[in-house]
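subagent[fold] <- orchestrator: predict structure for attached chain, return tokens only, no commentary.
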Amino acid sequence: MKKVLFFVAVMLLSVSTASIAQAKFGLKAGVNIANATGDDVEDADSRLAPFFGAFVNLGLGEKLAFQPELLYSMKGIKNTSSIMGVDFDQTTKLNYLDIPLMLKYNIAGGLNLQAGPQVSLLLSAENEYEGGGESETEDIKEYLKGSDFGFNVGAGYDFGPLGVDVRYNIGLSNISDEEDGDIKNSVIQVGLSYSF
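subagent[fold] -> orchestrator:
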């Protein structure tokens, strides 16, 4: 955890004072098309879930900007299985505080490319089971690591203060806290933003 916070602090302190003078603040929200990869993930379906938060856009020149964000992001997977002829739906709900540290390069007009690392802190995790007219929820946070590290790539378009972007978050770290566990987050994000 200390290494994660140190990494974020170094990235934020590397921004020049001149950039802070050009800062634009904003809000963003959208939908995650969340899934997972790894040896412990079988026949998983994507889970649609929202994300929302805030950002600051710091100009580094005419074409380049640094945009750190703070997002409440819902991830996870869905599975369906059948036991003795009864269908059961399992939804794994993982809620994170995402901290993307994005570089945005303006190609032309409002069109931009985006890339950067992301640190995520696990807030809650549970499995929800539904089937046969019954439902049950199990807390699974103890089986997962408290932090995740990934890399984002994407593109966006800014219409003045309004913006839209699409990103793919590639999970680089194993989030399973089990000895032989292997699970990585894999998320497509579609978001809308508004700058002040």
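orchestrator: received. Logging for downstream: DSSP finds two helices and nine strands in the chain. The two ends are 32 Å apart (CA to CA).
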